[in-house]
Task: structure prediction
Amino acid sequence: MIKNIEHIEKISCFDSFQWNDTPEFQKYNFIFGFNGSGKTSLSNIFNLVTSKSNYSEDKKKELFQDLKNHDSSKIKIATGNNQKLTYPPTESQNNRNIFVFNSNFISDHVYDGTKGNLKKFNVSSTELNDPEIKKITDNIETKEEIIKGINKKIKKAEEDFSQIKKDYNSDFRKHFANKQLSIDKKLPDASSVPTDSVEQLQEKLNLKIKEHKLSKNQKSLEEDIQSFSQLTFPQIKILKSDINKVFQDSVSKIATDSLTKKISDYQEIVEEDDVRKVEPWYKFGNELFKKISSIQNKKCPLCDSNINDSYIDLVNSFSAYFDKEYEVFITKIDEQISLIEQQIKTIKETNTNYEKLLKLYIKYSDFINHSPSEFSTIELERSLSEIKDGLNKKKNNSNKNITFDFSDIRTRLMNHNQVMEELSSYVESLKENLLSKIKSPSEIESTIRGIYKSLVYKSLNSKLNGVEKYHSNCELRIKTEKEIEVLQEEKVQRLKDLKLEAKKVGEFLIRLGINHFTIDLNEESEGNNILVKYKSQSQIKSRLRNTLSEGEKTALAFSYFLSKVTIETKNPSQTIIVIDDPISSLDDNRIYNTASLIYDTFHDYKQLFILSHNFFFLKYIYPSFRKGKSCYLISNGNIDILPKSLQNFQTPYYYMIESISSFIEENDKNYDEARKYLPNYIRRVLETFFSFKYAKLTRAKNVNQSPGLDDFIKDYIDFSSLPLMTVDSITNENIKDKLQMINNVCDNFSHGNMQQLENTNFIANQTLDSISKDCLSIIDFFDGIHFQMINELNTAE
Result:
């Protein structure tokens, strides 16, 4: 239910209306307003918040453009449960089912001023007693229930899809700040769902995210690849035959027996560890003998004895031992030692390279399937050191026969070389792997987005137990909707056969007291489709402009409104009715029929608003509604409770006099507001007063019109017979001029509509004060007793 109109900003005559202390709307609401007070604008405000099936969004936009006075124009309506209806609307706004009857409704549905064009009813949910219609309707409702169930499943699937996208988008933004994960709004089909599991996709995603981070530092990656390229793991080679030959060979075979014996004797008397000292000593002796060869008296360097006679033999002996073959042999030993040392150095370099390899492996372990093979060189290095030690011993004691067991080192060498081969292959594959990671960040990001999309699709597929169910539901919905369309067409055709619009409108016309003509619809015509058949004539007429009176057009339009609402409304308790002046140009009998028909038709609807400028109409209809009713006055851009002077619903005459008196007595007058209504009140008060005073109900020139102020001045008041008296500024001599002055000033307000007000010549403040006082003084002049009673009535109130 609508509780109040909370705010109207810059709409038509409503400048900045706020609902303050005025009592809230009831179930039945009667709103009185003079012509031009804003009744039609208020009824159109209800059009802005009705459902789009009653008033399309395009028409609302067009209507709002016509009503608004400023870019800030807006409305806010309070409803039950603290909900608000606004225009411009909010996204989630749930508009109400409101039917509005006003001039817009008439021009849109019945008669636009030139052509009669009765619109077809919206029969999508219409219930009628016709058996065939009922059968079709039942079938439609069954299928609509199916669609409701399908829509619920489809909506749930789409909500799940939206939430999953939202969750993964949040995760995506953790890695790519200020970016959004863009995924199609349409749910995927089964062929788009990846075969990989969510876990597998997540692993791929994690790897690609690391690759993306890596791609942002290409220089470091390229430097590391260069480092990989420099890592070598050579194999170790030992020539066992060469080493064994050195170990087994001896130079003592070429030495003399005596020297050999002497060397042997010396070797026997020294410790084994000092043997290496004996052979170098002899080597030194050889060099010493060569040095003393130029001395004439040759002496032994040890005992200083004369060795001239034995010198030649000693030199020969030493030379035999230290000849060229010995030097060659020693050189071979040194070569083998050098080779062993080089292999030991290679092993140490291998260990250093392995440590570098491990560091690079740790750095890029996310992109490497396995770690490098582990190995130890301790035993191998120990074996090589043993060989080296043996060669040094052989070098210091060339005659010593050395035996070395190569079985252990052979196994160690084979194992070591196998690992070196594996590491060399590992380095090459690793280098190729890292080279493949040299990609642009944007390329990797694109791949990452694709994986996220796959994750969304896979997660959704799991959530729905198969996306094909969603698509099956969509196909079923389309199929069912098409079936409903076929049934609707059958229903429309049946309704055409029944001529529902013509039949229902005819029924309501009779209830309004119009039975001298009937209507039919020309289904083939898009304009002037209303066919009028008078009972007294055989000819059928289609031009409403020249066929029906204004009262008959009003009755036809309202009958159509009643028909449309009752046919299209499935749930009256949820429907709001707004009716603006349904009795324009109707006589008293039809006004009574209209009031009675409104009560019979709408008393059980959710809420009813009736707006009118006609007190007699409100007098007829108000008593019919016994409970839950309120009366309001719309005036000067404001909505308030109906004043006491109007609550008897007899005539607005007393209220208008009270308004004029109040204006005269105000100290701080609002002339801008007064110009909008006061001239009209003055004219109508004087016309009403003179109508009773002179008992004139029609004009002399046109019996179908009520007399205006100008008619009384020219035709009915005998100014020459007026008594000689003075009331304030009014005398029998100037009263005609005063009336003529009032008539001239108020003439442009004769019907009080806002368009005329905008075109009215400006009325000076002084003039407004003057005609207000003169109006009341003229009444007092003509009937002092009447004027006195009016004052007493207003004072009592």
About this structure: The two ends are 33 Å apart (CA to CA). The CA atoms of residues 407 and 413 lie 10 Å apart.
